[in-house]
Amino acid sequence: MVKRIKSPGIITVFFVMLFSLFLLLPFVPLIIWSFTKYWPWPLLLPEKWSMDSWRYLFSASGRAGEGLFNSLIVAVLTLVGNMVLGIPAARVLAQNEFRGKMIVFSILLAPLFIPYTVSIMGMYDFAIRLDFINDYLSVAFAHLIITLPYFVATIWFQFRLIGAKYQEAAASLGASVSKIFFWIEWPLLLPAVLLGSFLVMVISFSQYLPTWIMSGGTMLTIPVVIFPFASSGNSSIVSAYSLLFFVPILVLMLVYFLLMRINSRKQFINRGEDIAIRTNKHSNQ
Amino acid sequence: MKKLSMCLAIFLLFLSGCSAGTKNNSQRVGENSLKSDWKEITASAKGSKVNFFMWGGDEGINRYIDEWVAPQLKDQYNIELKRYPMDAVEFINKLKTEKRANKKSGEMDVIWINGENFKTAKQEKLLLGPFTSKLPNFQQYVDTQSDDINYDFGFPTEGYEAPWGKVQFVFAYDSNKISNPPKSIDELQAWVKQNPGKFTYPAPPDFTGSAFIRHVLHEKSKDYNAYLSKYDEALLKGEADQVWNVLNEMKPSLWREGKSYPQSLSQLEQLYKNGEVWMTMGYDEANASNLIKTGEFPASTKTFVLDKGTLSNTHFLGIPYNAPNPDGAMTLINFLLSPSTQMKKMEIEYWGENMSLSVERLSDKDRDIVESIDRGSATISQEELSSHRIPEIGAEYVQWLERGWMENVANK
C-alpha cells in the first residue's frame, strides 16, 4: 500500500469537476420532475410540488417493491450462473492451449457482437418450450447468455495476469487442484470477480426484452414495470421510476467498494506486506 | 462431480414438477367453461387466481384495478387478481407465437382489446369463444342490441369480447382565452384563420390525429352512414378531396404554419400546457378533468363537442384461447360489468371514464347515483355527450385516410 502524497494539479481538478458535472447534471431534472406534475418550459423551477409520483410508486399499483425484489433475485441467479460457468471457462482459456481455442473463445464472446434481435427471436420459441421451468430461472438463463461474455472476459484477463508460476510451485509441493484454486487462485482472482459481478448485476438489472420474452411478460422486474409509462408522456412517474432504478445500482457500487476494501485489508494482514504489495500491483495493472 | 450433477438433475425435475402441475389441460377447461352454466363457473372460480393483461401507462386506471377492483374481487369471490402491464399489440403477438407453437396453456386470463387488435385476435382464432351471453350482468345491464356493442370498429363482436367502457372524442380549450368555442369544422376553420398559430392536431397515424381528420370527413360527407357498412374504396376516394381541402386551407394558420405537427397526443398536450396552442383534443371525455386535478392543465380548461357530434367508441375485454383460468376470467369480467364497479370507474378519483352499461337499464337508485357522480369540472354532461355521438368507421377506411393525409396534406 504505497500512497502517493502529492496534491493533484489544477488541471486534474478542473477535468474531474467537469466530468462529474457531466455525469450528475442529468439527475437534476430527474429529481425535480419526480416531485412535480407540471413543469412548463421557460420556468426555472416548477410552481407546484407534489409527492404523488412517489406515493404511486410505493402504492399497490406502483409495484416498486415487487420490481426491486424480482430484479434482485434474477440478478443474483444470473451471477451464480456466471460464477459456475464463467470462472472455469476463463481458467481453461487463460491457462491451457488446445486446438480451436480461438473458436471457443469467440463463441463465448459472441453475444457481444451478434445483434441483439437475432438471438431474441430464437429465444422466443425456446421460451415456450422451456415453459415448465420456473420463471426466475428461465429469465436468469437469458440474462446469463447476455452477461457471460463480460464476466468471462474480465476473469480471463485476471487469470492471464496471475500466470501459472504460483500454481506450478504449489503443485510441485503436492497441493491438489482444488487446494490450488481455493488457496492461490481465488484470492488473487477476487478483485476481478468483484468487478465482473458488479458488471453482471448492473447489466442484468437493465434488461427488458429478454426478461419479457422468457417470462412472457409476467416477471415484473423494474424495467418491465417502467416500460408502459415510458411512452405515456408522464414525465413525473418516469422520472421517479428512473431514480428508483438507480438505487440498487448505487447500493451495488457501495458494496463493491466495501468488498474491495475488505479484500485488500485482509490480504495485507494475512500474508504480510510483501505479498500484499504484489497482489495490489497485479490488481492495479 | 457426479453427485453435483445428480443433485442438479433432481432439482430441475422438482422445478418442472411443481410448475407443470398448476397449469395443464386448460384447453379442455376452456371449452368446458363455455358449456357450463353460471353457477358452475363461479363455483369453480372460487379461490383461483386471474391474470389480467392490460395497457399500464395510466396511474388512475392502474389504481382503479389494484386498489378498488382487486380487493373487492377477493372479498366477494375469493379470487386473486393480478394485473400485468402490457400493450395490446404485444400480448396479441405473444398469443400468435403461442398459437404457432401450439401452446395449450398460457398465462393470460383476461385481455383488454379493441379495434384492430380484436380483429386480428378473432380472425386468427386467438380468443376462447363467445362468452358474453353467460354473464348475468351483460344480459341485464348492457344494451345488447346497440351497434357500439355489437361492432368494434365495424367488425362484429359476436360475443367474443365484452364491453368494458365507452369513450368519446372531445375538444378542450382554455376558457380564459376563448369565450366562444367553435361548434363545427367550418367554425373551427374560421377560428383558426382568426387566431393563427393557436391550433394544431397530432399527425396521423397518431390515434388522436387520425380521429380528428375523421371528424372532417363526417362533416363533409354526404352520407356518413355508408362508411359503416362494407369497405368500398371508391366511396372514400370520391369524398376525400373535400377533407384534404379543409385541412390544407387550415394549414398556413396552424401552429408553426403547419410545417410540422406534434407527433403524439402527449406532445400536443405539452403545447397546450405551455400555452403555445389554445386548444387540444382527445378520445377521452374526462381526460381534461383528470389533468386539471393533477395540476397539469390550467383550471380554466373546458371541453366541447361538435354540433354534428363527435366519434365515440367502445373498448372491450376478451379471453384468450389458452387462458389458464377461464372460469375466473368470466367471473372477473362479470364483476367489472356490475353497476357498482362501473360507477366507481366513472369517478374522477380513479379513471373518470364512461360506463359500458345502458343507463336506462339501471335501477332508479343507481341512476340517481350516476347523475350525481362528479366527473370533474371540465367534463360535459352525460346528456350532451350521448346526444352528440357518432360511430366509428371500419379499420380499412381509417388506414386509407391516414395514408392519404401523408400524401395530400403533410407532403404538400
Automatic annotation (TrEMBL), chain B:
Keyword line: Signal
The residues the entry assigns to the signal sequence are 1-20
- Highest lineage ranks of the organism? Bacteria, Bacillati, Bacillota, Bacilli, Bacillales
Pfam families given for it? SBP_bac_8 (PF13416)
Task: Please give the PROSITE patterns that the UniProt record associates with this protein.
Answer: PROKAR_LIPOPROTEIN
Any idea what this protein is called?
A: ABC transporter substrate-binding protein
